[in-house]
Amino acid sequence: MSDVVLQIDGKEVKANQGMTLLEAARSAGIAIPTLCHHDQLEPYGGCRICIVEVTVRGWTKLVVSCVYPVERDIVVRTRSEKIDRIRKMILELLLAHAPESPELNELAKTYGANKQRFDREASFCIHCGLCVRYCAEVKRENAVGFIDRGIRKEISFIPEIAAQACPECKACFPLCPTSYLQAAYVLIEGLAFTGGDLEPASGK
Ligand code: SF4
Ligand code: FES
Questions:
Q1: Closest ligand 2 atom to Cα of 34
Q2: In 75-94, which positions are buried (b, 16+ CB within 10 angstroms) versus exposed (e)?
Q3: CA 143 to chain centre
Q4: Nearest to 35 by CA among 24, 26, 48, 52
């Protein structure tokens, strides 16, 4: 039963206690962009593209909608000049990693992001963590993980696990917003695996 009523983009939305703002918005047909969110995974809050403005008791702040819980009587705005400016900047930074990513380019059109604003980064990975978390939380394999930290952070398949688990799975391929994952997998497989079908698994 809906037990929290809040306002999102001027619309009264009924939500359940424990839902996030993103879930409440989507349940009401209000779109918020996401890059690191997946319905089957624990909230992560990594990419920040889903930020929204929330007004609580007269105070307005920016929050990450995929992790922020619904509260009674709060007022949420999913678009504003400030939100769009921040999303544009986030996209420009991410496009330096993956300028050809269809998902990023689609969002870039909406927010007027310039993919040439920043110098090209060596890594295609935008650190959304979808591959790593999906493998751990849904597949319970931990065949792929992050190595290094900060700007040097990269994904890496664990050859001993991946050689067994990945050839029949590949469920993480279609989750990657940049396609880097597939390239990395192919590379590792070329080096260490026994071969096999490299077509991505269908569906997410
Ligand atoms: S390889 Fe792709 S799915 Fe994995 S963390 Fe990087 S961008 Fe995300
Ligand atoms: S979708 Fe919310 S932080 Fe990435």
A1: 1
A2: ebbbbeeebeebbbebbbeb
A3: 19
A4: 48
Give distance in angstroms: CA of 44 to centre of ligand 2. 7
**Ligand index nearest the alpha carbon of residue 43:** 2
User: In what side-by-side order are the strands of the sheet with 59-64?
Assistant: 11-15, 4-8, 75-77, 51-56, 59-64
CA distance 139 to 134: 7
Q: Pick from 13, 75, 73: which is nearest to 63 by CA?
A: 75
Residue to substitute in 35, 36, 49, 128 for testing ligand 1 pocket (most ligand atoms within 8 angstroms of CB): 128
33 lines ligand 1 (CB under 6 A): no
At 194 the pLDDT is 52
**Global pTM value:** 0.90
pLDDT in tens, 122-167: 889 999 999 999 999 999 999 999 987 776 788 999 888 998 899 8
Q: What is the dihedral of CA 48, 52, 55, 56, to 10 degrees?
A: -50
The backbone torsions φ and ψ at residue 77, rounded to the nearest 5 degrees and listed phi first, read -120, 125
